[in-house]
Amino acid sequence: MLKGKTALVTGSTSGIGLAIARALAKDGANLMINGFGDKAAIEKERAGLEKDFGIKARYSAADMSKPAEIAAMIAETEKEFGSVDVLVNNAGIQHVANIEDFPIDRWDAIIAINLSSSFHTIRAAIPGMKKRKWGRIINIASAHGLVASGQKVAYVAAKHGLVGLTKTVAIEAANDGVTCNAICPGWVLTPLVAKQIEARAQQSGQTFDQAKVALVSEKQPMHEFSSPENIGALAVFLASDAAASITGSSYSIDGGWTAQ
Ligand code: NAD
To answer: Global pTM?
Structure first.
């Protein structure tokens, strides 16, 4: 379905972004992957995408907190592949603390990576999409884009902002063949969440597995994590022709978290 198209997935060296990249590659898209991590492991992932799916994959080390690096990454993708057709804004970080204890540099980093980076990627990629009259922008928000929890002030503010940004871009691009939607996952067991489970286990004296069940069942009526592959499948759907008239929407995939 996406054969001949190019997808750029930010933060695709781990977790949800990696699963989305693999799902889009399986559907035929060439890929620009991005994110931090061990150089050899990233190269293995890049080469594996090419081998497993018969597509072309490149890697950009651009830091999503740096607007100039983001602009260069979009330009490099357009130069290498001729276009950015599917843009998935996925890179994200977390920090957990009450607002009075929240380090200012963590607030700035979370707003930059979880919110502003999407402004910068879309700003740079959307002119080409509009010109070609085809584009799919998928922003990985969160249940925390729709509802709040304590101790996550920056994350909740950034993700609510990302849902708002999604709606505005959708309206602006509505008649240019470009859609913009948000995916709002509940708990997905990735390194980002494993850190929160470890902290919880340490504080409560529980084992990792006990803390894991406590974490998920506190928020979700369905006491199960979504898998990164579940999120990848939804991204593929939003990139498909079947989703051509879906825009400005926020798709919850959260085991019932925000139904309450
Ligand atoms: P993860 O920690 O496994 O992956 C995060 C990715 O972002 C990694 O590839 C990392 O290298 C990259 N990254 C971090 N800072 C970056 C920067 N400055 N520049 C470029 N890349 C950077 O986390 P994940 O759980 O897969 O999260 C992916 C997205 O999904 C995030 O936006 C997160 O907020 C969102 N999300 C996660 C969950 C969950 O339960 N895991 C739930 C809802 C939303």
So the answer is: 0.98
